[in-house]
Amino acid sequence: MQPPNLLTDYDAVGFDADHCLVKYNNVELVKFLVKIEAEEFVELGWPKEMAEFDYENDLPVCLNATIFDIDNGLVIKLAKGQEVIQAMKGINKKLNKQEIESVYGTPPIFKNYQWPNTTHLHQNKGAYWVFLTYFDTPKVAVVLKAIELVNSGKTSKTYFDIAVDLRTMVYRFYVHYNEKEVHPIATFGKYFSEVIKDPSRFIQFQPELRDSLDKLRKAGKKVFLGTNSHTEYANLIMTATLGDDWRSFFDIICCACRKPLYFWDMKPAPFYVVDPKMPNLKGRAILDANDLSAEPHQTYIEGNSKTLTHYFERTMGIYDREVRVAFFGDHYITDAHAASTNPGWDGIAVVEELALFDPELEDGKESQHVITDKSWGKDAYFADGTRGNLKLNYFIGQVEDSARYMLPFVRNIDMWMGQ
Ligand SMILES: [Mg+2]
């Protein structure tokens, strides 16, 4: 398929923030997350050994798009047809073909997984947790270490407890807001406080993106941000990426936007005007596109793609045809796939691993890839096997089917803005 032309194919272009517009130093981030997540497990009652990592050997297990098969205590990689092509029962402790078939049958199929789910947490009923994006890959090392401890009898915890503790940890680290209130991130969990101290340790400043976003807006495109991060963290990471005036590059900004529900909820959430006086920061609720401000650079909490599409129709005067929207995101399900389910919308997947195959796309910047060859085999992210018998990664196959296109970094979009 031909790559898109953002200037001629679309009326509006939207971006996810984390691992999309915002480029993290992945090696630094993944190392840091493995450390604090394992430490949290120790606080949740795991043996101290849990937090002992040999990063040189252990980090290469952190492969994107793997699945924790909770019932069987394995981290697996799937190929097309949900075939299990690799499995580990500990850090770099791989199962051979016979062992895999003894668990999953011949051919070995992981039948429990159902696209487009990301987790299924019912004990002994085909439970699983899918690791997608660079925020999830550190969990692979943590889970494999925990599986080893369960298998060695050094803990009375079970495989299912690993998932329960993962969920507790996610809530303690990242879920700093609920319906009633938003907690300041500086005093919430082990993650945010460290990023606040020195954002540049984790996030790359990308001044060149300012030109790309400017070019889109000068060409008459509506440019918007749709991030699940709440307003305070979104401000921190976007400032680190573009500078203090980052809002000036967007017509509309949606924070805490509940993807994938943003794209397909049967009961779409309103756009809440930010009100610092409210404990949950939610001011006036807007559900009618006519009530959204025509002034650019507005920040809202939540919102939904249907109302946003009407907003584009109204503000751009497009009534005789479908509005065409491109949405960039690194999450294959909640960004690329979910956005694509809207009429006129194309999801575009940000797949950093692609840069390993085309160094020209690196743009001279330090990409900081977590190289997983040592644990999963050379270039195993996209396909496993030998020439002539390559088996495509299941999730890459799914994203190929649902997204219009893939690219490694948003800073590559200039090549899609030809005349
Ligand atoms: Mg993201």
From TrEMBL:
InterPro entries to which the protein is assigned, alphabetical: HAD-like_sf, HAD-SF_hydro_IG_5-nucl, HAD_sf
Keyword set includes Nucleus: no
Alphabetical UniProt keywords: Hydrolase, Magnesium, Metal-binding
An annotated Gene Ontology molecular function: 5'-nucleotidase activity
This protein's record includes keyword Magnesium: yes
Coiled-coil segments on the chain, per record: none
Similarity field: Belongs to the 5'(3')-deoxyribonucleotidase family.
Name of the protein in its database record: 5'-nucleotidase domain-containing protein 1
